[in-house]
Model the fold of this input.
Amino acid sequence: MSTQAFAVIIGGGAAGIACACRAAQLNPDQKIILLEKADRVGRKIMISGNGRCNMTNMTASESSYHGEGARDLVNILFKKYNPQYVLDWFHTLGLLTAKEDDGKVYPRSNHASSVLDVLRAELDRRNVEVRCSVEIMDIKPTRTGYQITLTDDTVFTQKLVIASGGKSDYAYRESGSQDLFKMLGLRTTHCAPSLSPVYVKSPVIKMLKGVRANAKVTLYQKGEKIKEETGEVQFTENALSGICVFNLSRTPNQRRGCEIGVSLLPEMSAEEIRTLLSDRIKTVNSGEAQKIFTGMFHKNIGIALLKSAKLSPSAPASSLTEENVKTLAETVFDWRFETIPKFDMKNAQVTAGGVKVSDIIAEDFEHIAHEGLYIIGEALDVDGDCGGYNLQFAFASALCAAENLNTEEV
Ligand SMILES: Cc1cc2nc3c(=O)[nH]c(=O)nc-3n(C[C@H](O)[C@H](O)[C@H](O)COP(=O)(O)OP(=O)(O)OC[C@H]3O[C@@H](n4cnc5c(N)ncnc54)[C@H](O)[C@@H]3O)c2cc1C
Done:
């Protein structure tokens, strides 16, 4: 069996589906095929944003993206394919959206399924041939395009779009991205998890499991301050988690010599915290030192802070010296955790690394060495911060490639 197509898109995630829809809108008389390895398309859209799908962010600019050459690529891409362009396109599909104060955009229904529903309806309306549970055995260039060998068919296509995503989450177990890259001889950069918990080496981390705290978190590499975020820190038995930590995770996941400083009262200076603790010691007096923190932090944080400052939580508060109080205040102000690099894709939201951006033409996402081959979305070495930036890139790169598949002006 063999099939002729105008365009084949490999990967039925956010980027692949959007690209297939847009390509079909612009090429109504052409055959467009979407190939997906899993048994259905758009599974990651459904789990994104805790089931709400934070589909873009109105503040998105190149500064929210990482990867070799990623910012230059995004800068060119967003000149046209910015968050408003993506939203306008979704509105034409019937999606109602809601913007939040921090620029994050969600479907108005607050259900990720609404995003996937409009995309799937468009695939149907435009007669895109969607094939799920496919296995790609081989891809070869031909004189006029590409030959894709499946287990039960050989597909010949003029245009081939790779939208196979990264290695994160369950995609790690299912992703065939690396195989595809090898079949096509694509150059890639080193892959690592990003937007993930950061594993730490600390004698007190276990006792903090399940505890949360509003804090400022600062990433240090070899003592130098790299990045700072504010938000809710979630402690696990061996890691720091929460969106603010996710946004710092890229470097400590890949490199040794990093520390995260947790500032539990960022609105106060270390000196102000020292005065506060001294006052509380007077109130607690001969009671246990850990009582100083009652009503201030979760009980286990108080105990862990004292242990980290090498003080006994059960000793009388009144036995703490001036020096002890100063050390304790400094710990509350800047509680340091040594980080451990870990390749934990299962708990990562995105992959740092992928197909080299320098091998892609920024204006249309075509590969510089392979005519008719396009790479979009997370398959590229582009990863964004948490907050709608990754889906924005997936959708924007998809629309850009789709609008440039045909030779006619759009
Ligand atoms: C839990 C979670 C929550 C997230 N929340 C958000 C959020 O709210 N906002 C945001 O901006 N980003 C979020 N992200 C990140 C965002 O979902 C991804 O960056 C985005 O989905 C990438 O889209 P993509 O289409 O490039 O890749 P993917 O969505 O990974 O899609 C790739 C598809 O290709 C298929 N595939 C792979 N190999 C093959 C092959 N050989 N043959 C056929 N098919 C193949 C895969 O099965 C998959 O369906 C979240 C990620 C996770 C894991």
